[in-house]
Design brief:
Chain lengths: 245, 173
């Protein structure tokens, strides 16, 4: 069994993530089966509960694992759609351009990373992050709710910028020289929190499109955005090209 | 105390303390206290969390005492025996049971804005330290925010620095 290499400078959770991912991809752990409990994984790899939790959370986020309340964590699928390269223009993907949005900044403040945001942003739990919440409307009708999380040290001056009339993407690239080189997107249809439904004018029973985006500059994760869109106001066009193998 | 000492000479940076928006729950604030202070064995004096509004204006501070008070409303009630040194074991037992009851778990879901100490008093970086000391002593403050041009929150004065300055001046004389 592959074990954690403590001489390796990579973070322990990342090593564990890679080991577990291999087990899933190689079918050593079969789709539908339950993975060992946190305690068992701690013993198997001689790591702390926090390390196990972080690695498992990342695999859940990537779609390899699924947690079932009160039952455990199960193998959901053994592949992700690798090999497909997004050709969509970044700006189109950000929904910040091309449409005549009006933007209402509901919040721009600083907070600590809670509820797994430290894992999502790949930062220590005691680092400050900038939190931005914006409501986008077309013809006074709210259609898009965006929550953005940025490690504070990446761009502290963002707190003083006009983000009602400027896109974060442009500020990053043009003003602060932070070139966005890669965006990871996770799209799902999701039930919403009642407050969110109210903000985007959705009835109680309806669902919305949830887009989770991870923005990288080189290898550094610089921003995570969670966008909620009404399903009736958007059509997605994504052109994908398979990478040469 | 030296007359020339001003607030900016002793103030602490705001990022020494965790930040939370006012809508965070008490339980979220507790987790932040544990991660930022207890698990890293950093014990600043005071141990506190800064509470901000949605426009990143300081609304208040949250100390460990504020948190415990928020979890146990009985702490708010003045006790006639508060100054009595001897321990009443039956009360302690009752307290323990109350703190860890479902009621306290429900209280922990309240927003921090309901239990924080509101920020009402401020100083400017150029203000004399004596002004900070006066405000802190007379209003029983453990942290005093420093605002630049009455607007931008740039630092904090802590009681430990005020004490240090006053005691230094006293011992010199």
């Amino acid at each position: 069994m592959e074990l954690i290499d403590r001489e390796d400078h990579q973070k322990l959770y990342f090593q564990l993530y890679e080991i577990l991912k291999k087990k899933i991809e190689s079918n050593e752990w079969v789709v539908g089966s339950q993975i060992p409990t946190e305690d068992e994984l701690c013993k198997m790899f001689s790591v702390s509960r926090a390390t196990v939790r972080t690695a498992v959370l990342e695999l859940v986020r990537q779609g390899f694992l699924k947690r079932q309340q009160g039952k455990g964590t199960f193998i959901y699928k053994n592949y992700v759609s690798e090999g497909l390269t997004m050709l969509t223009n970044f700006r189109e993907l950000l929904f910040e351009e091309g449409l005549n949005f009006t933007t209402n900044v509901l919040a721009r403040t600083v907070m600590m990373p809670i509820d797994g945001l430290d894992v999502k942003l790949d930062i220590p739990k005691d680092r400050h992050i900038i939190y931005i919440k914006r409501l986008r409307s077309i013809d006074n009708e709210p259609v898009l709710l965006q929550e953005t999380y940025i490690p504070y040290h990446i761009c502290p001056l963002l707190l003083e910028e006009d983000i009602e009339h400027q896109s974060l993407f442009e500020l990053f690239e043009k003003k602060y020289g932070i070139k966005i080189t890669r965006v990871k997107n996770f799209i799902e249809i999701s039930p919403l929190h009642p407050d969110e439904k109210q903000l985007v004018n959705l009835p109680e029973s309806s669902q919305a499109i949830l887009l989770n985006q991870y923005f990288y500059s080189g290898d550094t994760l610089v921003m995570y955005t969670r966008s909620i869109k009404r399903t009736d106001r958007f059509k997605f066009l994504m052109e994908l090209e398979r990478k040469a193998t | 105390m030296s007359d020339s000492k001003v607030v900016k000479d002793v103030m602490t940076g705001i990022f020494e303390y965790p930040h939370v928006p006012y809508w965070f729950s008490i339980s979220q604030a507790i987790r932040i206290v544990k991660v930022s202070f207890l698990s890293t064995k950093k014990y600043p004096d005071p141990m506190a969390v800064l509470v901000f509004d949605e426009k990143y204006n300081l609304m208040g501070t949250l100390t460990l005492k504020d948190i415990l008070r928020g979890l146990e409303p009985q702490f708010l009630k003045p006790s006639a025996k508060a100054q009595v040194a001897e321990e009443d074991e039956s009360s302690l037992s009752l307290l323990w049971d109350t703190l860890f009851s479902k009621g306290s778990r429900d209280l922990a879901e309240k927003p921090v804005s309901e239990i924080m100490s509101p920020a009402k008093y401020f100083v400017e970086p150029g203000d004399p330290l004596t002004k900070a000391a006066y405000l802190m002593l007379h209003h029983d403050l453990v942290l005093l925010p420093v605002l630049e041009n009455k607007k931008k929150f740039i630092g904090l004065v802590r009681m430990i620095e005020v004490f240090d300055e006053i005691s230094n001046a006293l011992l010199k004389e």
